[in-house]
Specification:
single chain; elongated; Pseudouridine synthase
């Protein structure tokens, strides 16, 4: 706790020079003087506390910015805002399962989703989804808060995805998705050695009566889909590809990898026979976009899953 000067008698509401209110012993309050982010601001003001302790205070919902609970470490602060630390009331943050919040502000939440977690329920399933968990998360601040789906990742695809925190922002993002998104890059572990080190796949995607997507090579017969790829690493059995989407269609990468004869590892639906990593070999590695209300460019990049590299390590070990 930052040190405070003795309060003067007869002035119970007086502030100390460091803007900490002394009339409420379980609350410290500070005024932001210059642009910064929340975690470094707290570490500066609570210099007697360790970094992990300050993070725990944040995670428990004990920090408010302008009277709203904030748990994101990188919440931007602007001069004139008020930051409050509560010691007497702990708001329990529900444990997040299968996802990590990478960024949160008043308009959007960006997460990293694990393979196996549904983005949103596809019917009446009463199971854990990213959507339900994030809805509970934002309702800590206000029971009326909601989140809105902007795009999805398949259950067995891991990586970066984004939700909106209002219907207005959802519509802004969806209506200008092609212009807003600067980069969507995946990594895909596919079967076999891809002969061309880089290339582009273009087709028109349609959905069958069994809800399986497939390519039509007749112009304008379905939704146009364009996928660019280049090799990161390969051996005789597998290829690790960097895949960049020019369009974002349902199951686009999965269909296009099958089209070139190299289905994604673990993707039985689209022709895979390999279970080399016990999951689908597809990960949304990079998402870069213009913030829907602020206009700034945000870029989120995650690591290639270690399991995607295992088939190449095994080959290297066996060859020694």
């Amino acid at each position: 706790m930052a040190k405070s000067a003795p309060a003067k008698k007869g002035r119970p509401g007086a502030k100390t020079p460091n803007d900490s209110r002394t009339n409420r012993p379980n609350i410290s309050q500070y005024t932001v003087k210059e642009p910064t982010e929340l975690l470094p601001f707290l570490l500066n003001k609570q210099s007697n506390l360790g970094r992990n302790t300050v993070k725990a205070i944040l995670a428990r919902g004990q920090v408010l910015v302008n009277d709203r609970v904030v748990t994101a470490y990188n919440c931007p602060l602007e001069p004139g805002q008020t930051v409050t630390i509560r010691k007497d009331k702990v708001v329990e943050e529900p444990q997040l399962i299968g996802l990590t919040i990478l960024h949160e502000d008043e308009d959007i939440i960006v997460i990293q989703k694990n393979a196996g977690l549904l983005s949103i329920s596809s019917g009446q399933e009463n199971e854990t989804t990213a959507y339900r968990q994030l809805m509970a998360h934002v309702r800590i601040q206000d029971p009326g808060n909601r989140i809105f789906v902007v795009h999805r990742l398949d259950r067995d695809t891991s990586g970066v995805m984004m939700f909106a925190k209002s219907e207005r922002v959802q519509q802004l993002l969806q209506n200008s998705w092609q212009d807003t998104v600067e980069e969507r890059t995946y990594v895909a572990l596919v079967e076999g050695k891809v002969k061309k080190t880089e290339g582009t796949i273009s087709s028109w995607l349609k959905e069958s009566s069994t809800l399986k997507m497939y390519s039509s090579h007749y112009p304008n017969d379905g939704q146009h889909a364009v996928t660019h790829y280049k090799t990161i690493q390969s051996n005789s059995s597998f290829t690790l590809l960097e895949v960049r989407l020019e369009t974002g269609r349902k199951n686009q990468i999965r269909v296009h990898m099958q089209d070139i004869g190299h289905p994604i590892v673990g993707d039985k639906k689209y022709g895979s026979r390999s279970k080399a990593i016990n999951r689908l070999g597809l990960h949304a590695r990079v998402l870069a976009f213009k913030h829907p209300t602020k206009g700034e460019l945000l870029r989120f990049e995650t690591d290639i899953p270690k399991s995607f590299l295992n088939p190449f390590r095994q080959t290297s070990t066996e060859s020694k």
